[in-house]
Fold this sequence. Notes:
The complex is a heterodimer. By secondary structure, chain A is an alpha+beta fold. Chain A contains ten helices and six strands. Helices cover 50% and strands 20% of the residues of chain A. Chain A has a six-stranded antiparallel sheet, with helices on both faces. The longest helix of chain A is centred in the N-terminal third of the chain and has 26 residues, at 35-60. Chain B has helices at residues 4-24, 27-43, 54-76, 82-85, 102-110, 114-125, 130-137, 141-161. Chain B is globular, with a radius of gyration of 17 Å. Classes of the chains: A alpha+beta, B mainly alpha. Chain A binds chain B through residues 8-9, 12-13, 16, 18, 39, 42-44, 46-61, 63-64, 66-68, 70-73, 75, 78-79, and chain B through 2-3, 6, 9-10, 13-15, 17-18, 21-22, 31, 34-35, 38-39, 42-43, 98-102, 104-106, 120-121, 123-125, 129-130, 145-146, 148-149, 152, 155-156, 166-167, 169.
Amino acid sequence: MMFETIENWALHAYADDELTDAEKLDVERILQRDPEARQSLERIQRQKTALRNAYDAVLDETPPARLLAATNARPNSLLGLAAWRNVAAAGLVALVVGAGAGWFAHQTGGAMAETLADKAANTYKVYATDESHAVEITDSEQLEHFLAKRIGATFSIPDLTPQGYSLVGGRLLNEGERAAGLIIYEDANKQRLAIYLAANPEENETGMTVKEKGNLVTCFWAEKDLVYALAGQQKRGDMLILAAAAHVGFDKDG
Amino acid sequence: MSTAFQKDLLAELPHLRRFARALTGDSALADDLVQDCVERALKKQHLYDASRPLRAWLYAILRNNHVSQWRRASHFGVMTNIDDMRGEEPVQEPEQEQGLSLALISEALDRLPLQQREVLVMVSLEEMSYREVAELIGVPIGTVMSRLSRARSSLHAILEERGTPVLRVVK
Lengths: 254, 171
C-alpha cells in the first residue's frame, strides 16, 4: 500500500503493530522525511508506555482474598446439587448414545455376557409378550424388596417415566440354581421392555454391550454384584437411552 | 478441589484486575467487576469455546457488565466522593521517563467518554488487536480506529493541560 502523505490512522496502526511488513516499510519511508509524523508517532508510543507503566503494578499485586475465594468456589454451590445430578444423568445418556462401538465393544465379558443376552432375549419372548400374566408383583416397592431379598443384592427399581415407560411389574426367575429377577415396563403404545437381572458372584464388571438379533435388541452390562440385561423391540437408539436411564436408576445411592 | 478451568481462571486474575482498574479508575469498583466476572464465568463455563483464548472471553464478560453498570449509573447520575478527589495529588517523578503516576493517568482516563476509554485501554494497555476489539464491542474496525485516534488525542490534550512534560517530545 502506498501513502502519498502519512495519514493519522496509519501512524496508530504502525504503533499498534497492525500493519503488514510492506505497509510498515511505506510508513517508515514517510517517517524519514516527515518530522511532524515522527513527532506524532512518538507521542502515541510515549502515551502507550505511560499507560503501561502506570497500570503494570496491578499485575504484581496479590489478588484480594474475596477474588481468590470466588474463583475457587465449588461448582455445586453455584449450580445446586440437583442441577448437577441432571447434568450428570444427561451426560451419561449422551456418552452412551454418542460413544459408538468403541465403548460397547469394550470388555464384553465373553461367554457370560453372551449367555446373559440370550437369557434376556428368551425371557422377553416368553414373559414380556404375555399380555395378562407377564408379572407376579406390580407394586414397585414390594417388587424391589422381594427381588433384593431373593437375589441377595440391594438396588432400586429404575423409574423410566421420564423416558415414557411405566412399570408393569416383575417376577422371580431362576439363573441355574440361583434366583434371578425380571422387571417389565411398557410405553403408551404397549411397547414392552424387559430387564433381566441376576447376581454377579465374581463381581467381574463389563462395559455396556448391545446386540441385535432379528427385531430384538438387547443391552447388557455387569457392575458390582449384579448383571443386567435389557431386551425389547425398540430401535437401537431408544434402547441405548433406556439402558443409560436404567443404569442410573438401579444405583441405590444415586 | 479446583477444576482445570478454575486454575486457568486464577491465572487470569491479575490481567482482569488491571483491565478493570483501567476501565473504572477505582480499585474497589474494579475488584467488584472482576468478582462478578469470575462468578459469571463459572456459571457459564459450559458456554466457553475452549478453542478460543480464555482471556478474550473473560474480557468480554467483564466489559459488557461494566457497560451495563455504567449505563445504570449514568441514569442516576454518577456519584463521586469528594474526599476521593482531594489528597491524591499527582506525584511527578522527573527522573523516571514516562513515569506518570497512576492517579494522574486514571483521572485523565476518567475524563474520556466511555466508548473512547475502553477502546484505548484494550489497545494501548491490554494490547488487543483492532479486530479483537471490534469483535468484543460489536462495531466495525473503522469505528475502533476512529475512537482510538480520538481517545489518544484527548488524553494527550488533558495531560498537556495538566502540564505534564513527560508526554512532550523532549530530547
